[in-house]
Amino acid sequence: MMRSVPYLVTLALLALAFPLASAFDPSALQDFCVAVNDSSSGVFVNGKFCKDPNLVRVDDFFLPGLDIPRSTSNQLGSNVTRITVDNLPGLNTLDISLARIDFAPNGVNPPHTHPRATEVLQVLEGTLYAGFVTSNPNRLFTKILHEGDVIVFPFSLIHFEFNIGKTNAVALSRFNSQNPGVITIANAVFGSNPLINADVLTKAFQLDKNVIEFLQKQIWLNNNN
Fold first, then answer.
1. Which residues are annotated as a binding site?
2. Which of 74, 153, 203, 209 could link 159 by a cystine bridge, Cβ 3.0 to 4.6 Å?
């Protein structure tokens, strides 16, 4: 049976539109959000509950003090000050956050990943060696960054920054998530709670088990505040 041209056009448009409409999911704003049928037993939503608009004030969108240098007196020689929806409520649903990173000479922001965001980092002061590693086969991209330089760390890839200068360094990062999250690789692998079975890590890293157990006994610093 022959179909009319308008019918076929409509069918084609529906075929194109339906996958786009059905495939979309909102981005995750936390590690997981287990579904429940009874809302009374739910304690989190994907994001934050919204404040009554009539109660919103300008201070909900304001946070002072990001110009103040943070202490880098720790074994990493770095300090990350995060500005997320947790301390700036006005960021809720806006898909953006930022962080100030302070470095002492030879300070490092160790290899880590943001499971929910791409990062754009700008050097405000000093000189940094920065880079990221792709997914398998793990290609490394690095660059020496000077004041005013910008680098992009693609979504969820492992990356790092190291102060190679003789003075303090400061960087400012922007993220396309109100809660980008952070997984510091060494902390996650050797300092999880509870610890990963040492036999697993011994086999995975092809190291002596005593080395793995030594690493698991270390105090792995969290430089994110």
1. 109, 112, 114, 119, 159
2. 153
Please state, in angstroms and rounded to a whole number, the distance separating the CA atoms of residues 41 and 61.
31
CA distances from 187 to 68, 116, 225 (A): 27, 18, 15
Q: Is 115 helix (H, G, I), strand (E, B) or coil?
A: coil
In angstroms, the CA 97 to CA 160 distance is 19
- Per the annotation, binding residues for Mn(2+) are 112, 114, 119, 159
Q: Alpha carbon of 198 to those of 143, 184, 212: distances in Å?
A: 35, 19, 6
Q: Detail the residues annotated as belonging to a binding site for oxalate.
A: 109, 114, 119
Q: What per-residue confidence (pLDDT) applies to 219? A: 93
- 96-122 pLDDT, tens digit per residue, is 999 999 999 999 999 999 999 999 999
How far is it, in rounded angstroms, from Cα 96 to Cα 73?
A: 29
Specify the pTM: 0.83
- Look at residues 70, 136, 67, 137 and name the one whose alpha carbon lies nearest to residue 109: 70
pLDDT in tens, 123-160: 999 999 999 999 999 999 999 999 999 999 999 999 99
CA 202 to mean position of chain CA atoms? 28
Q: Quick one: tokens of 13?
A: 């448009």
Residue 132: count other Cβ atoms within 10 Å of its Cβ: 20
